[in-house]
Each structure stands twice: as structure tokens, then as C-alpha cells.
From TrEMBL:
This is Uncharacterized protein. It holds the Pfam family Retrotran_gag_2. It comes from the Eukaryota. It comes from Fagus sylvatica (Beechnut). PANTHER family: OS01G0873500 PROTEIN (PTHR47481:SF31), PTHR47481.
């Protein structure tokens, strides 16, 4: 096993597509951030990204504190990691996200730019998806189509890091059913045992 700290970013760069399965775009910031943060923590590189490992002085100082013409080895190590991490993060970005990172000189600059842009978007996107989920009604759709719409919206929320509990989803589903399902809804609401989405789908198909 290679224990040279200088090689760590290069190893990570060569394996990044296997470790981070999504490319950042407007729909998946929370999922992307979770995957890439976990990877950076595992490789002990998050301190470069979040700025806690600050850039050392480029040149050494002599005994009097004056700057010399000699490169600081600590700066070289930091700069190698930083530039490798810029390349690594860039490999996980969609073209639109990559365009936002152009011009940034450090990993922290790239990270802060992406976080500022996508955090606000993710919040509004989550609110919109939650509103969509609560507004889905069966109307004239079949049970299969109705449940598929709900599942697609639920999956989109999960893709941005928001997970809907089975109990909450149950009430959303029941609220979207027409009046002829009211006896079924009453029975489900008084049920003591939890029920999964798949189990509820089977019961609804039998009720249809």
C-alpha cells in the first residue's frame, strides 16, 4: 500500500468516477455533496476543500524572517493537493456546473462557488417538489398511474437528499384518493401496523 501523502490526491483522481456516481447539476446537489464529502473525508482531504488546511507561504524565510528565493516544501505539498482536487471535483461536474467553477484558483474557491449557487437552488427545488408531491391527486388516473406519479416525485426528493417517511407518504397518498376510496382510507388510517409503499400499492390495486 502506498502511504506517500503526495500520491493520495492522484489515487483519488484516478478513481473518482467509481466513488462519486453522479455529476452535479441543478437537481442533485445534496446527493452529490454527500458522496463527494464522504469520499474526501475517507481520503483525509476535506481540510483542503473547506479551507481549514490553509495555503502556506510560497517561499521560505531565513532566520531573520525575511522571504528567500526558495520554494516552501509545505506550499508545494499544499498546491499539489489543491490542484489535483480541482481536477477531481471538475470531473464530477456537469457542463453547466463546470462553467461556474471556471476562473477559480483554489479548491475552496470552487467549493464555495458551487455551494453558494446550488444551496439556494436546492432549497427552492425541494420546496417545489414537496408541493408537487402533496398536490398529486388520482382524479381519473388508474391506481398504477397515480402511484407511479407519486413514486417519481418521491424519488426526485430522495435524489436531493430529502427522504419521505412511509407514514407521511401514506397520508399523502390517501389524501389524493377520490371519495369512493374513503372506506379504504379510513381503514388505513386506523391501522396499527406500518405499511410500505409497495404493500399499499397491492392493496389499492385490489380495491380498484
Amino acid at each position: 500500500m502506498n502511504t506517500n501523502p503526495n500520491s493520495t490526491p492522484m489515487i483519488l483522481l484516478s478513481n473518482i468516477t467509481n466513488l462519486v456516481s453522479v455529476k452535479l447539476d441543478h437537481n442533485n446537489y445534496m446527493l452529490w455533496k454527500f458522496q463527494i464529502t464522504s469520499t474526501l473525508k475517507a481520503y483525509k482531504l476535506l481540510d483542503v476543500v473547506d479551507g481549514s488546511y490553509t495555503c502556506p507561504e510560497m517561499y521560505t524565510r531565513d532566520s531573520n524572517g525575511a522571504v528567500t528565493a526558495f520554494l516552501n516544501p509545505e506550499f508545494t505539498l499544499w498546491d499539489t493537493k489543491d490542484q489535483a482536487l480541482i481536477s477531481m471535483i471538475s470531473a464530477t461536474l456537469s457542463p453547466s456546473a463546470l462553467a461556474l467553477a471556471i476562473g477559480q484558483k483554489s479548491t475552496k474557491g470552487v467549493w464555495d462557488t458551487l455551494e453558494k449557487r446550488f444551496t439556494s437552488f436546492s432549497r427552492s427545488n425541494v420546496l417545489g417538489l414537496k408541493r408537487d408531491l402533496n398536490n398529486i391527486k388520482k382524479n381519473n388516473d388508474s391506481i398504477h398511474v397515480y402511484m407511479q406519479k407519486l413514486k417519481e416525485c418521491k424519488d426526485k426528493l430522495e435524489a436531493v437528499g430529502v427522504f419521505i417517511e412511509d407514514e407521511e407518504l401514506l397520508h399523502i397518498i390517501l389524501d389524493g384518493l377520490p371519495t369512493e376510496f374513503y372506506p379504504f382510507c379510513s381503514a388505513m388510517r386506523t391501522r396499527n401496523e406500518p405499511i410500505s409503499f409497495e404493500e399499499l400499492l397491492v392493496l389499492l390495486l385490489a380495491e380498484e
